[in-house]
Amino acid sequence: MDQLSDQAPISQNLLVDSIERVNDHPIILVHGLVGWGRDEFLGFRYWGGLVDIEEDLKNYGYETYTAAVGPFSSNWDRACELYAQIKGGTVDYGEAHSKEHGHEQYGRTYSGFLPEWGEINPDTGIQNKVHLVGHSLGGQTIRVLTQLLEQGNEQERELTDPDQLSPLFNNEQTSWVSSVLTISSPHDGSTTTRFIDGFFPMTKDIIALAASLSGKKTDNNFYDFKLDQWGLKREPGESWENYAERVYNSSIWSDTKDTAEWDVSPEGASELNSWVLAQPDTYYFSVSSEQTYPSIWTGYHKPELFMNPIFYLTGGFLGKYTESGEYDIDRDWWKNDGVVNTNSMDGPTLDSPDEIINYKGVAEIGKWNYLGEFSSTDHIDIIGIGLYEVRDWYRSIADLLGSLQ
């Protein structure tokens, strides 16, 4: 994948010109931190902004679904929710996990995008698989889901009655995931968490902003925090403003590591990388982004002119932050897209045995096939919330996934 020029829209940077389609596996789009579902946020799409990437891919010939998992929840909880949303059924966070972290074991119930997922298609004799595409935190989430589907979880098997064990935690099935594709994901964490710790609590700040934008209508479906497992479900008749206030004042932001904020720190990412591994029968792809430039005087990375202004502070902070200790944060971490350090996006390296290779037209299964870097592209430009037209690029990505054996 070639880098973009400063002016070129993403749609001009097609991954492939012509490629043969050999599978019909559906594509599941998984949002990152703060993300939302298609029926939220006044119809403004996480995937596409004013356009709809899901609908465009469907029109292009690819069965596509948009997931809506906990925007601030841990990758474990999000993976459990994603499993239920795709397969159907009630979310089971696991008996061992829920007891360890002090929240409810069961969550919402879904009809399922693909109830036949994992079964053998009687017409083709081929197992029904999916392609998982995750942006930002969503990239970590789909890695966790793929790991659990293939390997299960030993703690859950030891603690839970076999008759009550979710299929997600047993290790009796082959992989149901054809490919994992991550976009601008913090595989080694993001030093944005250092900015948050030093200046303001990001999660609560975002919640306060959402509350101020939503208005005071009782039936407003502006935003859903999806934190039911923590006792933070919106009550019947409760105003959205009061609901947001309860979430804002919850103790979970300081009393547990079972949240996204821990998972996207270098420490949390390293912990995740130590057990979430590239599976040998799944294809892995990664894409990175950046929109900073090095100062000729200091070498620090500064936000480019057209970076979204909401990222100026964090982009500038990431562009010069260093740290010595368990994790040495040096100048290699300075290039960023306003939210995530670019060197964290190509695949997991902290405490991970996974292998990362440059994609050269033929994907290698069980390894991270790095597709390249989008230059002058900030963290939300790449999902269509910004200056660039992205639909052609996502069609190209769909063609790549559709070409996998």
UniProtKB/TrEMBL annotation:
Keywords: Hydrolase, Lipid degradation, Lipid metabolism, Secreted, Signal
One example of a Gene Ontology biological process annotation: lipid catabolic process
GO cellular component terms, semicolon-separated: extracellular region
Reactions it catalyzes: a triacylglycerol + H2O = a diacylglycerol + a fatty acid + H(+)
Localisation: Secreted
Enzyme class: hydrolase
UniProt GO MF annotations: triacylglycerol lipase activity
Record EC number: 3.1.1.3
Keyword match Lipid metabolism: yes
Highest taxon, organism lineage: Bacteria
InterPro entries: AB_hydrolase_fold, Lip-like_C
Pfam families with a match to the protein in the record: Lip_C
Lipase-like C-terminal domain mapped to chain residues: 23-390
Alphabetized PANTHER family for the sequence: ALPHA/BETA-HYDROLASES SUPERFAMILY PROTEIN, ALPHA_BETA-HYDROLASES SUPERFAMILY PROTEIN
Name by which UniProt lists this protein: triacylglycerol lipase
